[in-house]
Amino acid sequence: MTGATLYGLCAAVLVGLGLFGLIVHPQPLRKILAFNLIGSGVFVLFGAVALRGAAAGFGGDPVPQALVITGIVVAFAATALAVALLLRLFR
Amino acid sequence: MAFDTGLAVVVLGVAVWTIAARKTVAAVAGFVAFGLLLALVWVRLAAPDVALTEAAIGSGVTGGLLLGAATRLRRIEPSAAGETLGIGLKLAAAVLCILVATGIAAIVLLLPEPAPTLAPQVAKNLDRTGLGNPVTAVLMAYRAIDTLLEVVVLLLALVGIWSLAPDRAWGGFPGARHHADSDGLLAFVAQLLVPIGILVGIHIFWVGSTAPGGEFQGATILAAMWIFAVMAGLLDTPAVNRRWLRLLLVIGPAVFLAIGLAGFAVAGGFLAYPEAYAKVMILTIEVPVTLSIAATLALLVAGPPERPPNG
Fold first, then answer.
1. Which domain holds residue A44?
2. Interface list for B 15-44 with A (CB within 8 A)
3. Is B77 in CB contact (< 8 Å) with chain A?
4. Alpha carbon separation from B112 to A52, B28, B272 (Å, rounded)
């Protein structure tokens, strides 16, 4: 098994775990946490695909890598907004 | 390979902990550890730029934000909880999640050979951007529109958070005022660490054109130093109606957009750079964008205004 396959499978499990937490947890903050876990799984999956695309002297395909950086920042913005809504709801 | 297998197992173990932990604060602590381990995964995936972003934003700033929320929600958490599912529904959810994970795993195993890649095109055109780091080249040149939209999304999230302010605190100061204990350890460490951290942040930003790093990673470190100084009581978060603050927040997206529009005149397209000036123009965008992102991230963590602007 290659590194890309191994981390791709790891990503699949992360998405499954996060989805489970999102459905099952009653506390809203835990749902936000689980949602971030799903996001991390999607990013790692993208990273595994980028690793398979290694060519031209690069360790991985830089295009998906750059998009993951964008994704992480946007995920943070969404998390911050969700947390603010949550704190407003239960003040 | 043994290292990768071990790392994947530990990552999954910590992920299980963040879902299964009884206490929310413990789960968030697990999430911070998870983010740092994930940064290691990114190094193993030959993506040091993503590793820096994950460690700084995914683990550090997100962790800080969630930890703050978990602490504030601790007392009312039981009443804030929604419906607890019965065992049957939990089992159904588990089956669904296993199906989803299996589906993704099947896709991973059946990915096409040879893998499609854009790396050769990036390599071929890298010289034309004047940059040495292919990821920065993608972010600032080939896919600059994504980055522009992302900077705008950050700003929109901040507008969303500010709009949650109660009437009396409208345009006021976010969060509680922390007071420095002049003999305290926290204030001492902050005085020692913040100047060093600011230098590290600028360095990470500056080397991003040729080495792993860039404006998002650098800006996150700058934001973290701001948050740290506020928490240690060395300075207060400014009231959100301050004109200089709003200028700081929009200068990055504004310069980005202006140079993008100038591309129509000088290079025949939105966000196109004339070849001879590509690096200069990219740096002209990156400096204000870094400052704006740093301020936006720090204010996203600070949350909506809670104290009146003139009190």
1. 3-89
2. 15-16, 18-19, 24, 27-28, 31, 34-35, 38, 41-42, 44
3. yes
4. 10, 37, 33
Q: Is the pLDDT of residue B311 over 60?
A: no
Residue B18 neighbours by CB distance under 10 Å:
24
Interface confidence (ipTM) of the complex: 0.94
Can you give the pLDDT at residue B202?
Answer: 92
pTM of the model: 0.90
CB contact under 8 A, B19 and A14: no
- Over residues B57-74, the pLDDT tens digits come to 888 889 989 988 888 888
Residues of B in contact with A36 (CB under 8 A): 31, 58, 62
Residue spans of alpha helices (H) in chain B: 2-20, 24-44, 48-53, 62-73, 77-80, 87-109, 119-129, 134-137, 144-162, 185-207, 215-231, 243-266, 278-302
How many CB atoms sit inside 10 A of residue B247's CB? 12
Residue in the block written with tokens 């002049």: B182
Question: Per residue in B247-265, pLDDT tens?
Answer: 999 999 999 999 989 888 8
What is the distance in angstroms between the Cα of B264 and the nearest Cα belonging to chain A?
A: 24
Q: How confident is the model at residue B158 (pLDDT cuts 50, 70, 90)?
A: very high
The count of structural domains within chain A is 1
CATH (domain of A59): 1.10.287.3510
The CA–CA distances, whole Å, from B121 to A67, B126, B178, B220, B238 equal 16, 8, 51, 30, 45
Residues 6+ apart with CB under 8 A from B54: A43, A72, B35, B38, B39, B42
Closest residue on chain A to B88 (Cα): A24
**Confidence tier at B276 by pLDDT (50, 70, 90):** confident
B275 residue type, one letter: E
* A-B contacts (CB, under 8 Å): 282
* A-proximal residues of B, 78-117, CB under 8 Å: 79-85, 90, 93-94, 96-98, 100-105, 108-109, 111, 115-117
Q: What is the DSSP letter of B177?
A: P
Write down the domain spans for chain B: 125-311
Task: Give Cα separations from B240 to A74, B177, B274, B301 (angstroms).
Answer: 22, 14, 38, 13
